[in-house]
Q: What sequence folds into this?
């Protein structure tokens, strides 16, 4: 059965052209010109993925994303002419799964759609290396998808978990941003370090005593990040 993609954009030509190309690529495409009608359509016919423009009339894309996230956990890719890093960071923090700027190459967009849908199908499956990892008082159990710090269980999104797991596999060693992109997001994301920066910030907010002065996930400038063991009481 074809995956259903909802395209939300106020550009009529863009909607028609992209919907045609999506259906040509084997997807079932629905379109909406604004956030309000997109929400109504999604309630009637839930999509497998949403392509969402930020600069919408009325309810903008960021507000629409908040509303979509309140109603269902469906993957969302921002497709927008805005290139400011702030927009990208905001979109990712609110739960967007990816970010593609206009003008874009259709093949690149189709590759991103495939990658996001593939990640959703994998869901929270355990990583290939399923051994329990202990890095000081940080414990990661891939089989149960549980992380604890000093015995306290954390709530991590799937990619936050995958990112922390990738760092833990090389605990005490520097892991480059490119390696993290390849391991956690896949080859389609090479050259897009912003997704790593944003997710590192999220992780620090959840596992660091002071996210502004991190001691667990340490930045090695110009190289990457290193997960450093902290024993009980040392991270306070």
A:
């Amino acid at each position: 059965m074809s995956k259903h993609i909802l395209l939300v954009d106020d550009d009529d030509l863009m909607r028609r052209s992209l919907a045609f190309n999506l259906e040509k690529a084997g997807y079932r495409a629905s379109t909406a010109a604004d956030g309000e009608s997109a929400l109504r359509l999604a309630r009637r016919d839930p999509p497998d993925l949403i392509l969402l423009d930020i600069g919408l009339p009325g309810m903008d894309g960021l507000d629409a994303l908040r509303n979509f996230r309140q109603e269902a956990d469906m993957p969302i890719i921002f497709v927008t002419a805005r290139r400011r890093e702030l927009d990208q960071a905001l979109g990712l923090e609110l739960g967007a799964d990816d970010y593609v700027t206009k003008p874009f190459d259709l093949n690149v967009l189709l590759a991103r759609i495939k990658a996001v849908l593939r990640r959703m199908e994998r869901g929270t499956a355990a990583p290939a290396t399923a051994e329990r990892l202990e890095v000081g008082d940080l414990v990661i159990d891939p089989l149960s998808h549980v992380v604890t710090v000093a015995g306290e269980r954390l709530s991590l999104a799937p990619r936050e978990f995958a990112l922390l797991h990738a760092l833990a596999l090389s605990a005490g060693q520097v892991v480059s941003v490119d390696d993290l992109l390849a391991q956690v997001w896949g080859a389609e994301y090479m050259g897009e370090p912003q997704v790593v920066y944003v997710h590192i910030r999220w992780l620090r907010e959840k596992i660091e005593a002071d996210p502004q002065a991190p001691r667990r996930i340490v930045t090695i400038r110009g190289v990457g990040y290193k997960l450093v063991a902290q024993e009980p009481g040392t991270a306070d």
In short: The longest helix spans residues 106-122. The radius of gyration is 19 Å.
